[in-house]
Amino acid sequence: MLYSHRLAAPLFHQEKRKGCVELKKFLVVLLILSQVILSGCWDQRLLKRSRLVYSSAFDLTEDKEKIRGTAVIRDFKEGVPTNLEVSGTGHTIRDVRIHLDKKVSDNFEPSKNRVFLLGESLAKEDIYDFLDIFYRDPNSSISSKIAITRGDAGPYLMHLIENNVLISEYIIESISSAESVTEVPKANLQTICTIMFDEGRDFMLPMFEYKNDEIVLNGTSLFDERRMTGELDYSQSALMLIMMKQKSKVARFVTKVNSGKEPNIQNYITFNIVKPKVKVEFSSLEPGNIHVNLSLKSNINVVEYPPNRLFDQKELDHLNDVISKNMTKRLEETIEKVQDANSDVLGLGRELIAFHPEVWKELNWKEEYQRITFHPKVELHIVGTGIIN
Length: 389
Description:
This protein is α/β, with parallel strands linked by helices. The protein is 38% helix and 32% strand. The protein folds into two domains: 47-232, no CATH class; 244-389, GMP Synthetase, Chain A, domain 3, CATH 3.30.300.210.
């Protein structure tokens, strides 16, 4: 019996190894079959059969009953990229797309759209009504930039076509450049979506203007909930973005510090804000008598000041005082515009909701916001004067 057990042991291990090999083969075959089956369940979107849209503009018609859409399609002639513009009208954005699709060969494909321009009249309506399709369609590019135009948006694209400019690149680069110097907020379809439904916070968008036969990015448009209600110039926009703690790498300002000097350039100074410290806090939460302190303290680097004399401490003290007063006044004017637009871009309502819910429940915030008393104060100190001693 002992001998038979020793003889059976190798046979048992041999059968076990054979079973493991068979199991591995079965698993490999199962894996291959699953890959074949799953790979057949996907939707193809062939780019060679599509006309890719890179820029779009939307306006309301004069009777405000329909939407006029303008799209720029990238085309190539003898290997050189060119713009092809198509336009159409419809009752909804989807309806506009249907009409545009009939005007182009192959398929009208907006999933690669890089920037949306909304005309001023359309922006003064509830913009979510016009953007709804982009949030519902899984093929939409919600990272696309979005901007407002003074007047209708369609002519802006047409003007760029006439000048043989690659429209999408021009608009994107204009916005990106302004973002890098804190002149406009970094905004796209995705970032503004949640804010549009936040009752305690509003947002700003870049604003283009047709000026002296040129298209320029000239500040920001202010929104109350989902409607455009006001605007800031680029300097006021930069100051407000700093107060919102959204400063980019550079934030540059020009202000008058002298008078009567010739040439006139000697009356002005240009400086960069360096590592600002911002405080926005409630000093009174009594309904009907809410007070908010706005404090901005920062060092600054002088980048242009023709009179020089920055080695003189008395001159530095004088400049620090004048610049601080001028910027305090500019902040007051900016806050006044923001209040007139009823645009809570600082998110004061959101802070009340989060930290003072008992106060928030007592307020009609849209009425209360315009009665808030703001106390702005700016303190700036020159620490850098460039390489000139």
